[in-house]
Amino acid sequence: MSNPAPLEAGALHPEALASYWMPFTANRQFKAAPRMMARAEGMHYWTPEGRRILDGFSGLWCCNAGHSRKPVVEAIQRQAATLDYAPAFQMGHPLAFELAGRIAAMAPAGLNRVFFCNSGSEAVDTALKVALAYQRLRGEGSRTRLIGRERGYHGVGFGGISVGGMVANRKMFGAMLAGVDHLPHTHSLEKNAFSRGEPEWGAHLADELERLIALHDASTIAAVIVEPMAGSTGVLLPPRGYLQRLREITAKHGILLIFDEVITAFGRLGHAFAAQRYGVTPDMITFAKGVTSGTVPMGGVLVRSDIHDAFMRGPPWAIELFHGYTYSGHPLACAAGIATLDLYRDEGLFERARAMAPVLEDAVHSLRASPHVIDIRNGGLAAAIELEPRPGAPLARAFDAYLGCWERGLLVRQAGEIVCLAPALIVEESQIAKMTGTLREVLLQLA
Fold first, then answer.
1. pLDDT for the residue 116
2. Does residue 44 contact residue 3 with C-beta atoms inside 8 Å?
3. 3-class SS at 243?
4. How confident is the model at residue 11, as a pLDDT?
5. Which one, out of 65, 97, 328, 387, has a CA that is 20 to 30 A from the CA of 302?
6. Residues of the chain whose pLDDT is less than 70?
């Protein structure tokens, strides 16, 4: 494919950029020095002027099969020309049922009902609403409390930021949902710095849930939601035994356990779901991102069949759950999802991710002696390099590292004082070496 033609003269003029209020972006900095993408294929982006950028972050945790994969592109094109939209309420189309069945077949046993939405944020709010309604339907209407975790990221809906634990995402938006509490996060530089995979220390932190239960009483708690691996806060792996302990406590007290797998589902940790990687089956799983390899927005919730069945009551013409979205199970998203799942299967990409994980692990830990590095951690095809903050300028050093990588042709992700890597499952060893080599160069030059 030929490189794209440059943008028309004046297209990057500040006035041309003014209308778009960009999400999770330093808008003033960006519009003073824009970083634009014009094309993507495989492991790379191209800028409008034709510069090639190695994608070290799967877009935004989402392009797990790589960019612009031909089978997915063609499936979307065919679907757009066949059935562009079908009403999601009281109507259906075959692809939504096919994709739901395919996802359920990949999921941990018992999680075999799928509710579709359009993003991870919507998936989380859906799961929280299902949890509250389910407790009411089974005669436990006093169970209205939700438990999240410090440093958790569960999207940007009011439900998600309420159970989430990232301060910057919460502090501007008032009291949020009532009756929410939080477990402590599991990150400890003192105990777990430079861990490879799941850290040894920290499983006991799951027992903090017993303290919250003693404080609030189990009869008031509907659900606990955690990310198996906390991604957006900087790749925090669960301590060994931590998730198993959470499962034991929630099951003992009749509390639903929700895994937010928006980042970890579809191969990031070498399995269809992180629940399978860790051998822990929750009551619900949220997903998004990798289900379509980022091509068309889609999310969803996997639900235990008995939770679903609790809603199936009343006259047969009655709506059982007053919840949903105009674009739930959108035909283009379903076509993209089916084609993406085919790619994962036909190319053995989950198995490939397992095989490449040790390569990424060794590569990122080779940066341990680089300047400013205070921690490195990794799991599957995800890794984080945590930097010592620059005195008097929080976040500046990691942002400079991000920009330095971009200038050298590498896309990474900044998360606070952390630089993250999460390459697509098609990544080659030579590309991992280039990522860490570029990072090494940048770290050597950082002030």
1. 98
2. no
3. helix
4. 57
5. 65
6. 1-11
